[in-house]
Every structure is written in structure tokens, then in C-alpha cells.
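Extended Data, record Abortive phage infection protein
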Amino acid sequence: MFIEQGIHSGNKFWKYLLGSLFIITASFVGQLPLLLAVIGKTILSGASYPETNEGVMRFFEPNLTLFLLLISFVFAFGGIYFVVKYLHRQTLLSVTTSRKKVDWSRIWFSFGLWSVFSIVTTLVFYFSNPSLYVLDFKPIPFAVLFIIAVVLIPVQTSTEEYVFRGYLMQGFANLARNKWFPLLMTSVIFGGMHFFNPEVTKVGNIIFVYYIGTGLFLGIITLMDEGMELALGFHAANNLIGALLITSDWSAFQTHSIFKDLSEPQAGVDVILPVVLVYPLLLFVFSKKYQWNNWKEKLTGRIDVNK
């Protein structure tokens, strides 16, 4: 069983605290290229040093900014691999899935399903509200964006999944010896991780319903499917298609996407609808395809492992 794979006598919860600190440190090291680039530009061009996160996001050309931001996740993923192998004495596979090998068909199914949904809904919104969007396609910048996004966004999303649905999910299972606590804690922490996103300032705290709800959805499909494959595919599609299709002046990532959203952000059905309607529909599709059962035990049951 997936969540139980991190439970053994030598795998105490303090190791997950230490490992998390190491992963965070690795991520900070990965942010040094961005810091050095900002300092270099201020020295060479005489530009004022940006004092806010928004200032940093707009300090460079969008593709360069995106590249420098995503590099930190390469370092963070390296940190995950290191602590899993050397601190916890586990394989990366053991925090990925309970199967004998990664099921790529699950990743691709989830990725394809959410990609199609995202593209179709974006086009529906564009054609039904043309005044709120502008076609902003620039071939060369978009081509560069495409290369950066295809290579590095899956690294970013996979890193987040390995931290929350893999590493911390098993870590909290070691602490609580049940399944509902790891599911709840990883969802809340995942939502809180987005606290400094510009969307929070623009929309308000109601957006945490979406962030925490998304974390809960990803946690549920991980526990029900006994592995992270579906979560890996969904998260990659969500961020990759989002970066390529649409951007706005207030979003976390500024990209040379195909469309630009001109509307003013506000808390509405677009925040609540995914959590109360879309995610339950996806759960239904996944449950039928992969024949899930025994929901209560898999999501809330106790873990009785003597190792």
C-alpha cells in the first residue's frame, strides 16, 4: 500500500522535518541564479533593485524570468532524491507508487484528460467573452516559452507532488498512523504555499478554497489509486497548459502565452466551481476507469503496520 511504504522502525517523524529543511535549503540554493541575475542587471544597467516580489517578476523579459524561477525546482527535486535515498533509506519509486514500476499510462491519461478540458474551456470562455481576452500570440517568444515550459514545468509540478503527495504524505502517516490526517495536512500546507501568489491579493482569501480544494483532490486520487501517477499527470497539465494558453497582468507566471486575460480578477464561480463540480466529476471518471472501492478505509482508515 502506497502510504505505508514509508513506515518502518527507523523512519521517525523528525527525519521528515530534517528532510523538509534540506529540501527547502536546496530550493533556496536554486534561487541564487535569479538573485545573481537581478544583482548583475542592477550593476550593469544602473536599474533600481526591485523591492517587491512583483518587481522581481517584471524585472526581466518573461521567458528569462520563467526560466530562472523554474531552475530552483531542479535543485529542490535533487534535494528530494537525496533525503529519500540517504536519510530515509527508500527508493524514489516507493514515494511515487505502490506498483512495481511507474504506470506511465496513468500519467498520460490524467494529463490528456485535464489538458483537453483546459483547452476546451479556455476556448469557450474566449469565444463567449471576446472583449475580456486578446489574442497575444508571438511566434518566436512563444516557441522559446514552449521549450522552457515543456522541459521545466513538469519538473516544477513533479517536485511539488513528490513533496506533498509523496514525501509529506508518508511523513504524516508515520506521525499519525492514519490516512485522514496526512490527507488533511498536506492539503492545507499545499494551499498555504500559495499565500504569496499575486492572485491572493487580487481575489482575496476565498481563493484558498480553490488551492486547498485542489490539494485535497490530488491527495484523494493519490490515496485511492495507491500512487501519485494521476496527480503527477493532472498537475503537469494544469500548469503547462495554463502557461502556454493564457496569462494576465496579475497572475503568478507572466508568459508569452497565446491569450491574455484582460478581466479584473474577482472571487466568483470560477473559484468554487472546480472544487464542488469539476473535481468530483474527475473523481467519478477515475474511479470508474480504475475501479476504486472501499473509499472510507483508503481515505480515513488507520494504519496498522508493525515494522
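Summary. The CA atoms of residues 23 and 79 lie 5 Å apart.
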